[in-house]
Amino acid sequence: MIRLENVTKTYQHDVVAVRDASFDVPKGEFVFLVGPSGSGKSTLLRLLNRQDRPERGAVWVAGRNIIDMPSGRVPQLRRNIGNIFQDFKLLLNKTVFENVAFAQEVIGKPKHVISQQVPAVLDLVGLAGKEDRFPHQLSGGEQQRVSVARAFVNRPLILLADEPTGNLDPATGEGIMRLLDRINKTGTTVLMATHDQRIVNTMRKRVIQLDRGVIVRDQARGVYE
Amino acid sequence: MLSRLNYTFRETWASFRRNMTLTVAAIITSAVSLLIFGLTLLMQQGFDNLLVAWQGDVEMIVFVNPTATDEQRAEIQDALSSFPQQVESFNYCDTACSLSEAQRLLAGDPSTLELLTAENIPTQYKVVPTQGTDVETLRQLRESLRSLPNVSNIVLADEQLSVIDKLKGFVGLYTLILSVTLLFAAILLIWNTIRTAMFARRREIEVMKLVGATDWFIRVPFMLEGLIQGFIGGLGACGGLWAINNRWTAGVQDFPQGSGFAALVVTDGFTFRVMLLILAIGMVAGAIGSGIAASRFLDV
What we know:
Chain A is α/β, with parallel strands linked by helices.
């Protein structure tokens, strides 16, 4: 599903964010990207949905090298990738329903499809009955659930999660992880960047560890260390 | 398709309400600049009306009494032909031609126009002198032609043209510079309005991009907003142009007959075409300015 071949990404002033990274992620796998702040985890996620482009190497997503993909085809790529962020990135002037529906509306899904699929996914993430609330009326965990619902409503092949539990207390974070695990079991490939040692050690999934942009460990059923 | 249209209009309207102050400023600036641009075109047309008699290097006009017979006209024609060193060519503007010219020149002086008929309007010979013929020679030529029977009047271009030309050049150039500068300011203001609107919605735009919205899907509501701003500004300019042109036309009709300003009045048809033009310029400039402003925020 995902393959990186000798990928190097440098930001301004020659700061190397990722150096010569290579790995494969088969369909349906759950992978943790771990490492200290600035080790390149978020950059790797940004490379996968073409928010950034590397200087060297190849990035394959769903069988296509996305580095040279024309800009006009990037929206199509992104419709197959869900994104979850540490700060949720919810639209504060929209209700829970509207936030999730927005992801379908902007890609032109018809109204009747939206009115069927949004309640179903809100039910999946445990927010049934809270459709009309605004983000400020929800707890942090609930806001992250809205964000997960928005990322999953278009049934993406891949889910990229950047520190999704970073702003949540441990119990709420565990709830989000159970949700991501459920989504992963539907066949969606999940890549999650995290600092959360406890979660990584509990889930025992594949762990890719980065240090100053270099992959220093790639371990099946790994722990944080 | 219907849901997309619904989305586009909803977003455009929401953005309008959020940015009211900047929107109003952009509309007023575009209205003023388009109005001045429209006025420039009307003034140019007014001066062109004044110059219509002197097109094609005509520098002398010999007016012939309407009662002149064909033989008497032939006499004038022979006289003109007998100065090959001074006269390169001449054209005869008959009754119909003179009447149609008068209708254009006297658009602002209907009372005089009403008095002119096919029976009493003088016909004209429009004379193109040979190259290098100086004003003094033309004046001598005028004197020798003036003595011919049935020549009612002879006018020379240099006396009329220098004033009109100077006025046209001065007024035309400076109003054009002013209107283009203001139009540029209006585009910048519309551009800035859209940029502010997009900045306020950058999180929304980022989310849209990440879930796979195309650039055009995001850009179109902003372009529509710019287009509407330009359109409203253009409408304001059209209203102003109509009001000013009406006042001017009414004012010119109060001038003494034959004061020479009647030709500065333009016909309603021309004013209407200028209105359509400034509406189109307002809409296109607004849409393109917004489109460019929007593109700068779409690099996610």
